[in-house]
Design goal:
The chain is an alpha/beta fold. It has 6 helices and 7 strands; from the N terminus they run βαβαβαβααβαββ. About 25% of the residues lie in helices and about 15% in strands. Strand 3, helix 3 and strand 4 form a beta-alpha-beta unit.
């Protein structure tokens, strides 16, 4: 289990000359494992809740934040995010606020099984959604995800000025806003996202500016091996 955040070298380089000012930390947490025996790409669909293992992951993340100066907890409106946020908020005597901007990215393949060998790529009706991987054409544009997620981060910063905030969201939006902050291109190989289940991506602000970024995996020992270091196979995020 990782105890200390792994700091991004790209963002850490901005700290020079930014040590003064009020420090606020906003943590973006990916939710725990979801009960999804059919392997559906659930996206924004309602009704997809944490599995038993996912609830263990949520408890582990709550333990990770025990003793921290958390004054604000907010989550995507989707059930899996709300359930992951609940023990974190409870441990600090807080209510979970809901932030629509933290929601999963929209995806044209919601409700479908979409993986190797399931025939989805052979269906002509799906081809139009695959024409532009750089936007991407199958779902919410990456730029739109940056705008809403950065807005949610800044709002959490304002709600927890001088303290720490926890925001529970989903893999793709977390990775996209991190990529933006670190100055990377937004289109990418999903297998290379550093955002495993129940992981914590932490943004440190000095006043209004992000000056460093860290990443840790407090529940990594609970994450099935095939889901470590990448997206959930044939599922949502």
């Amino acid at each position: 289990m990782s105890e200390q955040p792994e700091e991004s070298e790209v963002v850490a380089g901005r700290r020079a000359g930014h040590e003064a000012g009020e420090k606020t930390v906003v943590h973006l947490v990916r939710h725990g494992e979801v009960h999804n025996p059919e392997g559906v790409l659930y996206g924004r669909l309602p009704g997809y809740r944490l599995s038993g293992l996912g609830r263990e992951m949520a408890d582990r993340v709550a333990e990770h934040f025990a003793g921290r100066d958390v004054t604000h907890v907010v989550a995507s409106p989707l059930e899996r995010a709300q359930e992951t946020a609940a023990p974190i908020a409870g441990a600090h005597g807080l209510e979970v606020a809901t932030e629509r901007r933290l929601i999963e990215a929209a995806n044209a393949f919601e409700g479908k099984s979409f993986g190797v060998g399931d025939g989805a790529l052979r269906r002509p009706a799906n081809w139009r959604h695959l024409r532009n991987p750089f936007r991407p054409s199958w779902g919410e544009p990456y730029v739109d995800q940056v705008v809403r997620m950065k807005g949610a981060l800044d709002a959490a910063r304002d709600a927890a000025r001088g303290h720490e905030a926890v925001c529970v969201s989903h893999q793709l939006p977390i990775w996209i806003v991190r990529s933006f902050v670190e100055g990377r291109r937004l289109w990418h190989d999903p297998r290379k996202r550093q955002c495993t289940l129940a992981s914590v991506t932490s943004f440190t602000y000095r006043d209004d500016d992000i000056v460093s970024l860290g990443y840790t995996e407090p529940a990594i020992d609970l994450v099935p091996a095939h889901l470590r270091g990448g997206g959930a196979r044939g599922a949502g995020a």
